[in-house]
Amino acid sequence: MNRTTLSLIAAVTALAAVTGFATLEPPATSGDSAAATAARLPVERTSLLCPQPSTSDIADTAYTSFTPVVAGTSGGGKAQLQSATEESADPAGGKKRGAKPAKPVVQPKEPGKPTTGDTSGPDVPALVGLASGKFAPGWTVQETTEVAAGVGRGLLGTNCTAPDTEFWFPGASTAAQRTDYVHLTNPDDAAAVVDIDLYGKDGTLKSTVADGITVQAHASEPILLNTLAGDPQADLTVHVKVRSGRVGAVVQALDAKTGGDWLAASADPAGSLVMPGIPKDATSVRLVAFAPGDTDADLKVRLASPSGTITPAGNETLHVKAGMTSAVDLGDVTRGEAGSLILAPTGTSVPIVAALQVVRGKGADQETAFIPAAAPVGARSTVADNSAKGSTLAVTAPGEGARVKVTASAGSGGGTPVSKTFTIKGGTTQNVEAPVPSGLKGTYALTVESVSGGPVYASRMLSATQEGVPGFTIQNLPDDRGTVSVPDAEQDLSVLLKQ
Predict the structure, then answer these.
(1) pTM score > 0.90 for this model?
(2) Helix, strand or coil for residue 380?
(3) How far is it, in rounded angstroms, from Cα 398 to Cα 463?
(4) Fewer CB within 10 Å: C terminus or N terminus of the chain?
C-alpha cells in the first residue's frame, strides 16, 4: 500500500471520528451503487443546545438526558450539559487552553438510563451539551419548565437541538397579548453573525436591526421580536439565517391569556408536511403556513384520525401566497379524537413550512402549545422526561401502514425497560398505549423504531394540571441521526486513486 493510499485512508478515518458533525457519502462509481459500498456506523461526537428556560422568579426547570444503548459503539465516551458561558474539558478527552472549570448541570453515567438535573429562578443560563463515544448516537435532552403564574404561565418544554445555519418558525407573533423571543445560542469559540427575516400577512417586514446580529462565542442572545418589527402582527414567520458560524435557535412564545410554550423550528421546506399529535381535547387549533419561494402554494388540508383521513369541513384547501404568512383557525378540528394535520399539494408541489398553535381548556383556564411540521421518525427517535401518568404518544402513518417498536427505558431512579410493537393503519393517527418500565422510579425515555411499512411521524405530549389549568407541551420525534453513512475505504479509495 503506497503513501497516497495511506493518506486517503487517514483522511476518511479522521472524518469518521466526527460523524456527529458530518455525513460522508461514497463517490459515485460506474457499475456500482454508492449505497452498496457504504456502511451505517454510529456517530462518535454530537452536540446539543438548550435555551435559557425562563426569566420568571417562580420557574422550575428539569433537564433530562438520555442515550439509547447502541450496538457497535466504543466502550468509552462522555456526555455533559453546562452553561454556554463556561468552558470545560472536551468530552472526547482533550482540554481547551485557558478553560474555566464548570460544574455540569447534567452528566450521564451510562447509556440506557436517563439522567436528570434541576434548576430554578430567572438566572438559569442557556446550556451547551457535548457527547462522545457510546453517549453520542441518538443522544437527546429534554428541557421542561413549570411556571405557576404570570405571562406565559404553564408547562413549557423543548428538545435541546443541534447547532445549524438556518431555521424556519411559522407561528410566532407580535400581537398585543404575545411576548415572543427568538433565542440564539452559539456553542463555538468564534462569534456567529445572524440575520433574522420576518414575514407577515402582507410579506416581508422591514427592519434596520434584524441583520448582522452578533452572538458572541459561548453566549446566548434572546431577541424580542417586537423590537424588530413595526406594527403588531398576529401571525409571523421567522427565518433565522447564519452568515458565519452556527447557532441553536428556538422561539419562546409567551401569551398573557393562554400561557406559553416553546415553538421549535419547522421541518425543512417541502411540498407535503405532517403535524402529528393534536390533542383529542384541543379546543382551538390554528394553522400557520409560509411559502419561502416565488410561487404560491395551493394545499389540500387533511386530518388523519384514528379511523382514517378526513377533510375538515370548511377548510378543505389553503392558498398560501409566496412570501406571505397565511393562517386559518380550524377550531376544535379533532372532535374528541386523536389527530394529525397533513398538508399536500393540490397540483404542482411548492415547498412550504408550517406549524400549529394548539389550545386546551376554556376561558381563564387555557394553555397553549405548538406542533411544527415534523420530520419522519426514520430508523429511530427518542423523547425523554416521560412519567407514568401525563405522557401521551401519538403516531401517524400518513400514507402506507406501518409497524413500530416502542421501548420504555429504565427509569432515572430505577426500573426495567419494556418494549411493545404497534401496527398503525395507513392514513390514521393512534394515541398508542406506550409501555411503562416495570418498577419505575423517576422519569423514563420512549424510543420509537420503524419496523416495516411506510414512513411514520410521532409526537409526545406532557400534561400536568396546575390549579385547574391544563398545562401541557408537545415535542415531535424526528430521526435521531444516530448513525451515518461511511464509505468502505478499500473500495472507494481505490476509485479515487484512479481519477
Answers:
(1) no
(2) strand
(3) 25
(4) C
